[in-house]
């Protein structure tokens, strides 16, 4: 499936790119948002793009090659945004974007293990050089820790029951594949409806493997410090845990003025054209 950047028009309208502006895209992915911003900051502007996934970054490099020296790409977590901003001269920038969704590339490649739609290894790492995988969590973490992440990160009501079933099953045969885990969860929770019963467990594992909430919490203050007065921070989230954290931070940070009283969501047309945009929520704040 072709990758389509979510809320592209809305992001551009809120960040207001102009010539000579400097931007940071902390989750550059395949470069969809970055290309639109770069096309409007020239001449004189620059963009720093950061992504944990080396394969995504290579594709972004090709996508953004026409912008030459105006774009700097770095393979790392956005949690280290300050280090790279200072290294490449992106202090006091006009705007920062974080798109917290995982890309269609991750979903569509069974070998990455993010989805149970196709069978693959229990991996789920954005950065494939890190050691912790979903397989390690499922096969080595305690019942209490498994139940905790399923409940906290996946908001799974039957978290304890799922954790107990995993412990019992892995004692005989360790989990290796996404389908094995998805089938066990489905048989355990007996949930019916449009959403597959393993969805929340897989979300929880992805968040735990990549420390997504921890990295976001650490990064938000860094973003504010990097913004110039009048600079804007735009964040796209895809589940309630992230959205609540962003909303609370924007509300309590004295250096920010909230520009989106309610989160901006995709138009009906965008949702029809890109089903993965349906849960997206954009919140934007301006540095005072």
From TrEMBL:
Its main location: cytoplasm. The keyword Magnesium does not apply. It catalyses: cytidine(1402) in 16S rRNA + S-adenosyl-L-methionine = N(4)-methylcytidine(1402) in 16S rRNA + S-adenosyl-L-homocysteine + H(+). The keyword Ion transport does not apply. S-adenosyl-L-methionine binds at residues 31-33, 51, 78, 99, 106. GO terms for molecular function: rRNA (cytosine-N4-)-methyltransferase activity. Keywords: Cytoplasm, Methyltransferase, rRNA processing, S-adenosyl-L-methionine, Transferase. Its EC number is 2.1.1.199. One of its GO terms (cellular component) is cytoplasm. GO terms for biological process: rRNA base methylation. NCBIfam families: 16S rRNA (cytosine(1402)-N(4))-methyltransferase RsmH. Specifically methylates the N4 position of cytidine in position 1402 (C1402) of 16S rRNA. Belongs to the methyltransferase superfamily. RsmH family. This is Ribosomal RNA small subunit methyltransferase H. It comes from Candidatus Uhrbacteria bacterium GW2011_GWF2_39_13. The gene is rsmH.
């Amino acid at each position: 499936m072709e990758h389509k950047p979510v809320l592209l028009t809305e992001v551009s309208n809120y960040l207001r790119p102009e010539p000579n502006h400097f931007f940071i895209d902390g989750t550059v992915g395949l470069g969809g948002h970055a290309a639109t911003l770069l096309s409007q900051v020239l001449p004189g502007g620059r963009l720093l793009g950061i992504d944990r996934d080396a394969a995504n970054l290579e594709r972004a490099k090709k996508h953004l090659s026409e912008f030459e020296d105006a774009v700097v790409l770095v393979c790392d977590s956005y949690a280290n945004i300050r280090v790279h901003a200072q290294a490449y001269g992106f202090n006091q920038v006009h705007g920062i974007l974080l798109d917290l969704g995982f890309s269609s590339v991750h979903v569509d490649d069974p070998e990455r293990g993010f989805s149970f739609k196709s069978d693959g290894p229990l991996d789920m790492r954005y950065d494939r050089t890190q050691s912790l995988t979903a397989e390690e969590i499922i096969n080595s973490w305690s019942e209490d820790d498994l139940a905790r992440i399923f409940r906290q990160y996946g908001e799974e009501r039957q978290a304890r029951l799922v954790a107990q079933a995993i412990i019992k099953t892995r004692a005989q045969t360790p989990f290796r594949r996404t389908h094995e885990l998805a089938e066990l969860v489905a048989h355990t929770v007996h949930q019916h409806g449009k959403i597959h019963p393993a969805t929340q467990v897989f979300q929880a594992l992805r968040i735990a493997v990549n420390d997504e909430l921890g990295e976001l919490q650490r990064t938000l203050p860094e973003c504010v410090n990097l913004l110039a007065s009048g600079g804007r921070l735009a964040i796209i989230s895809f589940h309630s845990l992230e959205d609540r954290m962003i909303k609370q931070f924007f509300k309590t940070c004295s250096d920010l003025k909230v520009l989106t009283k309610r989160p901006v969501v995709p138009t009906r047309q965008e949702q029809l054209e890109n089903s993965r945009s349906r849960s997206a929520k954009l919140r934007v704040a301006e540095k005072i």
